[in-house]
């Protein structure tokens, strides 16, 4: 063993790597193949079960609609209590016959039963010959029931295997029990409707009541192999579902579960109980989930064998021919010290080493370019800061504000003059404070309120501004004069040209680690051409009517310079509808920024 370890230790690094990569590839590819195939099987199983659940839910909706339809017929019949009178017997039979003819796919037999047990049927002649021993039982149970009830499945001479819906009829005058209306449904038709999309080679279904009785009927028109998935007793006619199997199915939880059938394991998808008190269960052969991925097994095995062969060959070639070129490349890269000077490697070959050398040269050029961009960004950052501090207050803004104050003074509105001057002083103090360019959102909103107040003095009720700021956002950091240029743009270009009062709404919230500010107005809005021109406004001279020299895209670039290109403005606008500006900033507490500084 020591000799083997020593011999292995004498191998070169790439030879060891070759062995490790070969063995690792075999293990990884084999494990990955097994996991992927298992996941493919599980995914297909979940998809089939999900589809089955959808079909079951829709079937339950159909069942509920079925119940509603039967209830409606029973209610219509119950309103004709006069049909129970002896002189109305022919008319009653005709009414029942008309209802049965209109709903042949739903109802098999309809009955009106008087308190004395006299029965009127839609097929009176047939009933008089063969009768129906279940009718007295239903009449007795109806005397003890105040509303409609549904029986368990039973065998009827008139309707075959059926379920009866029974509604007691009361006298409208005395409120006493007068008789019952009975509908026996056609379970064969009901089963056929569902079997059209549930009975296939690999799937079938069953309908069971909450008392563990089988509802669905045997259809003699279907071949016997349609019933091979479930344990039917075919020695009797019609074949019956094994009672023990019914008990097991009744105890299954809702959703998907596994159960053993006569042909092997089955996946049962059980629905919740519908209004009829029935459970609908879909059954799938367990092998059904595997047969569709057998070709995937074969394809994956073939691809895996071919892939392993390629990996082994390519790993051997790399381990043999890469050592010397890599050492040469490392030796040249070690000579790089100063990134200010562009160092390049002479690349001659077109193989991996040649491409690596060219990639290294491209990387060095990119680094050099990024350094230049960083320097340019710092220069532009200082330029924007200087521009902001040098052009914070436009003369025309002061002129218009002082003119408004003068007008208020001439009107002897002393309180308005005092408040306007106080607001102007506060706004100027906020703008001239050069100690920091970062403020809390609360301070920024306060400065915005002062600016909006002065503009309302100038324009009157031309616009209103609402601020909905989450309390958690008020202590977050924001660049000073971020919101004011955006609101100013909304006032002058969106709302002032309107013939009615405009609205500006500002909402702030924190989403994960981001501070989101949304400014919305209902002004003129912009078309795509005007919206695109906003991205060029930084190349134009600022309007002399602005409060500051900061435009919309200046705000966007300032945010990008201070917080990174992942933050900034998103602008959406529709003509005659208004504009929405979404601002994304990092959600940083102002105290942390002050401590950092």
Per-chain topology:
Blueprint: H1 2-9, H2 13-78, H3 89-102, E1 107-114, E2 119-121, H4 124-130, H5 134-143, E3 149-150, E4 154-156, E5 160-162, E6 164-170, E7 177-185, H6 187-198, E8 203-209, E9 232-233, E10 240-241, H7 243-250, E11 255-261, E12 264-270, E13 278-285, H8 288-291, H9 294-321, H10 323-333, H11 352-390, H12 395-410, H13 414-432, E14 438-440, H14 441-459, E15 463-469, E16 477-479, H15 483-495, E17 502-511, E18 514-521, H16 528-533, H17 552-563, E19 568-574, E20 578-586, H18 590-596
Parallel strand pairs: 15-17
Antiparallel strand pairs: 1-2, 1-7, 3-6, 4-5, 6-7, 8-13, 9-10, 11-12, 12-13, 14-16, 17-18, 18-20, 19-20
EC number: 2.7.13.3
Domain Histidine kinase: 479-589
Membrane topology: Multi-pass membrane protein
What keyword list fits this structure?
597 residues, alpha+beta, 18 helices, 20 strands
Could you characterize the architecture of this molecule?
This protein is an alpha+beta fold. It is built from 18 helices and 20 strands. The strands form 6 sheets. The protein has a 5-stranded antiparallel beta sheet, sandwiched between helices. A 5-stranded mixed beta sheet has the order 15-17-18-20-19. Strands 8-13-12-11 form a 4-stranded antiparallel beta sheet, sandwiched between helices. Helix 2 runs antiparallel to helix 9 and helix 13 crosses helix 14 (441-459). It starts with a helix and ends with a helix.
């Amino acid at each position: 063993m020591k000799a083997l370890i020593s011999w292995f230790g004498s191998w070169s690094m790439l030879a060891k790597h070759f062995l490790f990569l070969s063995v690792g590839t075999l293990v990884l590819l084999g494990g990955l193949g097994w996991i992927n195939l298992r996941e493919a099987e599980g995914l297909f199983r979940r998809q089939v079960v999900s589809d089955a659940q959808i079909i079951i839910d829709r079937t339950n909706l159909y069942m509920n609609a079925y119940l509603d339809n039967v209830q409606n017929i029973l209610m219509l019949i119950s309103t004709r209590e006069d049909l129970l009178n002896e002189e109305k017997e022919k008319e009653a039979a005709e009414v029942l016959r008309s209802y049965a003819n209109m709903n042949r796919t739903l109802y098999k037999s309809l009955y009106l039963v008087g308190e004395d047990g006299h029965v009127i049927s839609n097929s009176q002649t047939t009933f008089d010959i063969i009768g129906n021993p279940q009718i007295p039982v239903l009449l007795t149970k109806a005397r003890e029931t105040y509303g409609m009830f549904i029986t368990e499945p039973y065998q009827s001479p008139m309707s075959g295997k059926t379920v009866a819906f029974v509604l007691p009829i009361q006298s409208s005058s005395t409120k006493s029990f007068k008789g019952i209306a009975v509908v026996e449904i056609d379970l064969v038709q009901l089963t056929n409707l569902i079997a059209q999309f549930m009975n296939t080679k690999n799937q079938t279904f069953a309908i069971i009541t909450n008392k563990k009785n089988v509802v669905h009927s045997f259809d003699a028109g279907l071949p016997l192999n349609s019933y091979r998935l479930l344990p039917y007793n075919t020695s009797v006619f019609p074949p019956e579902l094994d009672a023990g199997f019914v008990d097991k199915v009744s105890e299954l939880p809702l959703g998907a579960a596994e159960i053993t059938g006569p042909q092997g394991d089955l996946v049962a998808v059980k629905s919740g109980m519908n209004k009829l008190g029935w459970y609908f269960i879909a059954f799938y052969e367990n092998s059904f989930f595997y047969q569709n991925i057998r070709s995937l097994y074969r394809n994956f095995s073939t691809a895996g064998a071919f892939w392993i062969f390629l990996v082994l060959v390519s790993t051997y070639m790399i381990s043999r021919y890469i050592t010397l070129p890599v050492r040469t490349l490392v030796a040249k890269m070690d000579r790089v010290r100063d990134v200010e000077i562009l160092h390049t490697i002479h690349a001659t070959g077109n193989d991996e080493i040649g491409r690596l050398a060219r990639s290294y040269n491209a990387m060095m050029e990119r680094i050099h370019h990024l350094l230049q961009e960083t320097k340019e960004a710092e220069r532009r950052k200082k330029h924007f800061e200087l521009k902001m501090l040098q052009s914070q207050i436009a003369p025309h803004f002061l002129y218009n504000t002082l003119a408004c104050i003068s007008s208020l003074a001439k009107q002897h509105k002393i309180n308005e003059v005092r408040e306007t001057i106080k607001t102007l002083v506060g706004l100027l103090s906020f703008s001239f404070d050069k100690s920091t360019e970062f403020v809390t959102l609360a301070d920024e909103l306060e400065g915005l309120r002062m600016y909006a107040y002065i503009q309302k003095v100038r324009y009157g009720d031309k616009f209103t501004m609402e601020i909905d700021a989450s309390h958690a956002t008020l202590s977050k950091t924001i660049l000073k004069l971020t919101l004011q240029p955006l609101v100013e743009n909304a006032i002058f270009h969106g709302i002032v040209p309107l013939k009615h009062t405009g609205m500006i709404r500002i909402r702030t919230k924190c989403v994960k680690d981001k501070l989101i500010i949304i400014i919305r107005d209902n002004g003129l809005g912009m078309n795509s051409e005007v919206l695109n021109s906003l991205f060029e406004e930084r190349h134009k001279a600022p309007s002399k009517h602005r409060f500051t020299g900061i435009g919309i895209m200046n705000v966007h670039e300032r945010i990008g310079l201070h917080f990174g290109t992942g933050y900034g403005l998103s602008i959406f606008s529709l003509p005659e509808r208004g504009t929405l500006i979404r601002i994304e900033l990092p959600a940083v507490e102002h105290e942390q920024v002050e401590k950092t500084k």
